[in-house]
């Protein structure tokens, strides 16, 4: 039976004391203007994150977000593809910290329905989700590579049009919120609530790690949260249009992503990726 998620901010466990994060000094002559504000991954930081993650393991998503905002804002950000999970986090952030910068990796291959959600978020919450765009337009990118890269080399396409964008967006940030759930895939099952993201050199906060798909949709229904209309047409997980199809009854919710290939993740959330 679905459990209703408590909305109280009362901590269910003692929250970790505010730790001291080591920040690369702005006075360091070696540090560039861009890297001066980046976090350095130290043993102390990893211990701090492990303690925080354990303390937040049974916390409600709002509590996790409130902790992250208190700890990292204004260097706390969120990336969203406007999926149902992301929409619930946007809804919660609109109440907890609406000033949180939120961005979308606009690959140029997103569905119109997905992009229209940006406007619906602005109308409903007054939040302007920033569209981060690759240097090259789709036409320029495909001309450079002699055609669509997603056909023969989706890993390269995702790197060029997603990963590199997030790397740019991470500059100056200390932490980012992701909307992954542990029950989405064996890889995502390893996600801590709070952990160090080696790939992007950021603290990664996953407030919905313990939530189920049912809990996400219950919140969407209960609060009339905007969602992508493609979900009503069998698209349980929506990514770029060339790499997404509707699923049939009984298929895994991510079966429609890169269908027919071994690829299951764009690389943003792969837990075992190294730098
Ligand atoms: Fe390219 Fe497909 Fe990845 Fe989108 S999901 S960036 S189209 S390979």
Itemize the secondary structure elements and their pairings:
Layout lengths: L42 H14 L4 H12 L3 E4 L4 H13 L5 E4 L6 H14 L4 E3 L5 H8 L3 H4 L1 H17 L4 E3 L16 E4 L4 E4 L7 H11 L52
Parallel strand pairs: 1-2, 1-4, 2-3, 4-6
Antiparallel strand pairs: 5-6
The chain binds iron/sulfur cluster.
Q: Would you kindly provide a written description of the structure presented here, covering whatever features stand out?
A:
The chain has 275 residues and is α/β, with parallel strands linked by helices. A six-stranded mixed β-sheet has the order 3-2-1-4-6-5, sandwiched between helices. The site of iron/sulfur cluster (SF4) has 13 residues, from helix 7.
What is the mean pLDDT? Answer: 84
Number of strands: 6
**Helix-strand pattern:** HHEHEHEHHHEEEH
State the helicity in percent bands. Answer: 25-40%
Number of helices: 8
What ligand species are in this complex?
A: iron/sulfur cluster
Q: Low-confidence parts, pLDDT < 50 over ≥5 residues?
A: 1-14, 16-36
**Strand arrangement in the largest pleated sheet:** 3-2-1-4-6-5
Output the keywords.
about 280 residues; alpha/beta; 8 helices; 6 strands; globular; disordered N terminus; binds iron/sulfur cluster
Kindly summarize this structure in a few lines.
The chain is of the alpha/beta class.
């Amino acid at each position: 039976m679905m459990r209703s998620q408590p909305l109280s901010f009362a901590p269910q466990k003692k929250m970790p004391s505010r730790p001291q994060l080591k920040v690369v000094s702005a006075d360091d002559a070696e540090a560039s203007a861009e890297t001066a504000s980046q976090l350095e991954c130290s043993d102390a930081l990893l211990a701090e994150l492990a303690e925080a993650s354990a303390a937040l393991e049974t916390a409600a998503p709002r509590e996790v977000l409130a902790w992250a905002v208190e700890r990292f804002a204004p260097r706390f950000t969120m990336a969203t593809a406007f999926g149902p999970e992301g929409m619930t986090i946007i809804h919660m952030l609109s109440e907890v910290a609406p000033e949180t910068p939120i961005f979308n990796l606009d690959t140029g291959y997103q569905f119109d329905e997905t992009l229209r959600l940006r406007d619906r978020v602005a109308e409903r919450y007054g939040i302007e989700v920033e569209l981060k765009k690759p240097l090259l337009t789709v036409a320029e990118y495909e001309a450079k590579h002699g055609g669509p890269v997603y056909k023969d080399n989706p890993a390269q396409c995702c790197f060029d049009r997603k990963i590199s964008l997030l790397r740019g967006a991470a500059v100056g940030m200390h932490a980012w919120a992701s909307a992954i759930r542990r029950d989405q895939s064996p890889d995502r099952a390893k996600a801590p609530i709070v952990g160090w993201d080696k790939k992007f050199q950021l603290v990664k906060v996953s407030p919905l790690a313990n939530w189920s798909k049912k809990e996400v949709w219950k919140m969407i229904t209960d609060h009339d949260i905007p969602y992508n209309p493609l979900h009503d047409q069998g698209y349980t997980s929506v990514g770029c249009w060339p790499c997404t199809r509707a699923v049939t009854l009984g298929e895994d919710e991510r079966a429609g992503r890169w269908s027919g290939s071994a690829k299951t993740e764009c690389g943003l959330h792969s837990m075992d990726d190294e730098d």
